[in-house]
Here is the input.
Amino acid sequence: MAKSVSLNVNGKAVKVNVDDPDMPLLYALRDNLGLHGPRFGCGLGQCGACTVHVDGKAVRSCRVPLSTLKASQKVVTLEGLAKGKTLHRVQEAFIAEQAAQCGYCINGMIMESAAFLAKTKNPSEADIKKALANNLCRCGTHARIVRAVKRAATVA
Ligand code: FES
Ligand code: FES
Here is the structure.
């Protein structure tokens, strides 16, 4: 029997009806709420394509069962990162550096970087590489991605 699960996504209280409350958050975001920023890559927590923020922390939504989330926890997806029409500094920097080829990994790169920069001032290149070490890009766009995160770090 379908069960209603309450979530807070991109600043709004929402309910999703699911058959299995242990379903991954990623599926609810994409399939129930139509938020296609987070991508399905590996489904195993290994690639980072599905990354979202939960209470400001970057998490892999393919590995978060809905049943583990409280309605008060703030889930933010790529769609909720901008403030109105003002893009987040990391989004601006990725555009400025043209840091995407196919774009499949970019949701994860941006969400991971935004959470990283929120708690790390003036990161070194090594810090940035370490922060993104577990986000995979099959197109080999790493150099541009690192440049974009460096650029974003210079914007207050
Ligand atoms: S799809 Fe979630 S980490 Fe790969
Ligand atoms: S830009 Fe294609 S996987 Fe990263």
About this structure: DSSP finds five helices and five strands in the chain. The helical segments are 25-32, 89-96, 106-119, 125-131, 142-153.
